[in-house]
Amino acid sequence: MKRIEGIVVEGNRIGRTLGIPTANIALAADNTTPNGVYAAEVTLNGVAYPAVVNVGCKPTIDNRAKRGAEVHIIGFEGDLYGRQLCVTLGDFLRSEQRFDSLEELQAQIQQDIELVKTDLHRLLNQIWKLLPMRENKENWQKQKVPINRQEKIRKNQYIRRTQCNSPKQEK
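User: That's the sequence. What structure does it adopt?
Assistant: Structure tokens below.
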């Protein structure tokens, strides 16, 4: 599992105005986490909370923003500014994208939150594990047409499985 750690810094407080407060974490320059939205878990004061995390540059808000992580902790209310936060990323939910309005962004984030709250992403991954392999990794990577969320999740799982299960090369 990939982890993101950092100090919670001040943001634009736009998430709070949308009713979806986020803890902003600046990412180190060498952070290789792919941009996108992830299901995650954050532990605070010994309690594990589900979370939705956007890793990227906030294209709807400011296309020139530095890369960072915005963490919405489901079920947590409180001030995290200046605190060290450790976020364990889970399943990749979708690519980061630019929305035409804050209302569209808010609606999509609410869908992401509901997906994580209902654990639907875990169910989809379990279903994917039961399906026979349809295509090889190269075909998935060459695919240029838009794919829906379930296929993105399956693609992510397939690539992770093939990377983990590939035979080690002898030296």
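Confidence is low (pLDDT under 50) at residues 133-147, 160-171.
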